Queue: 3 jobs
Job 1
Amino acid sequence: MEAYDAFTEGVEPGGLRSRNEIKTLICYLVSHLDTPLTKGQLNTIICEEGLANYFELNQALSEVIENGNVTASSDDNDPELYITAIGKQNTATLENDIPYTVRESAFNAAIKLQTRLRRESEHKIEITRLENGCNITMSVLDGNDALMTVTVFVADYEQALAVKEKFLSDPVTVYSNIISLLMA
């Protein structure tokens, strides 16, 4: 069992308390996802799940980049992370040192975040504040073509955000249900 050498503020029970485990989890995520993660996305995934301390995560990321296990794109704002050959090899050797539940939690959170970001880029949502509420306009897009655009009035901005979240959770079902209702 590895010594606990990482800060644990914000870490949920079962989260990582060792710097080496955090480095291994970073490499695991970067190597097992089909699309690259950005540094910001990695922070969101691991910290929101309570898997590691924010400061420890960023220190570990700097170390895996410095050691050549991961490379970062030249985008200074939010670089994309890529696993190197040595990083893949090290990950294959060490990934089982990370508890299965931690790996699954991190991987599922990454997939959920990437799906959400893809949906945000594929569909257009605008919230317009009005004097007595908000209009939220949601468009289901197929490339550049709008398959459907719906504007809904809600009482306040919080409701508009809730509608936006619900729409983004499954825009295809929203589209299908509206079409089904209109064709019935």
Note: Residues 100-122 form the longest helix (23 residues).
Job 2
Amino acid sequence: MFRPIAKIVSLLLFVFCVSINAQDEDAAKTLLGKAMPEVAVQDFDAKSVKLTQFKGKATIITFWATWCSPCIKEMPHFSKLVEDYQGKLQVLAVAVGDTREDTLNFAKKNPTYKVTWLFDPEEDIEASPVTKAFGIIGLPTNLFIDADGKIVDYWRGLGSTDNLVKKIQGLMAK
């Protein structure tokens, strides 16, 4: 009974935080050009997975939640980009502020999405080492990581599909 209320409160807090542009700019400045932080998330078998283990090919990390409609709208576009770049690009979809069960159910309902499903085991967004390491104050938050594990781009929010595709094409061309 309280679960939907908690999600609404979390969503409202995230919407409020997104309006704080200075924090957003600080997170990007802090991360851009640096190696990806050594933080662990979990796969659906609850095994610990370090995000740095995905180094070796261009990677988009999208921090999302099943209750975030802009996040959901991005998923098919990320999946299409993975298909378009045929093994040269991977997308890690890291659920934050969400339960393992809800994340797993979403992935099972969307088997055609070509993303690697992961989740932050800490459901409390404010206490999460993942959200702290990446400066996540709103969803969706996305990063582009080059094959060497360096953070090349950081953006928040759902933009237009055309802009997303152009952004990724430009980043892949580098």
Note: The two ends are 49 Å apart (CA to CA).
Job 3
Amino acid sequence: MSVEEAIGLVEFSSVARGIEAVDAMVKEAEVRLLASRTSCSGKYIGLVAGAVAAVKSAVEAAKEMGRGHYVDDLVIPNVHEQVLAAAAGTVVLPEKAALGVIETFSLASSLLAADAAVKAAPVTLVEVRLGTGIGGKGFATMVGETAAVAAAVASGAAEAAKRGLLVATAVIPAPYQELFDKLI
């Protein structure tokens, strides 16, 4: 992703309305469709990438089309490259390190929290889970030195809390090896 690129996500409470809104999203502006899928609790998400102005326009079009089924959205200009890798599950786990977790009530807020976390401290995002198998919530996990993980979790949690969507956080300085090995 180049520096001027952004990601945008829109989350809906209806599958039918979500599919219709994602169609409007990609027809509105020149963006790349990264995800268009269901998540738990009957939600539907659309995730796009592109130039900041195009992503903003696409997100607004989807929100308009979502008529009453809109749940949450985001636009992250200059998104950190680790965020998409963690959301796609393509991260190679580093040596054992401290583990941090940020859990949120929405998928959009978990992406925002992950981006804020990785920009705040030198950590490696392990995963950004977007609502699959967890009741429509989202979470981000990260590893690194204990102080860096604590700082990253605090920053990401503050971002989610601004939206009133923080569920919980954890910082585990020395996770059990088998737990650490099963993170991805």
Note: Helices lie at 15-28, 52-65, 81-88, 107-120, 146-162, 177-181.
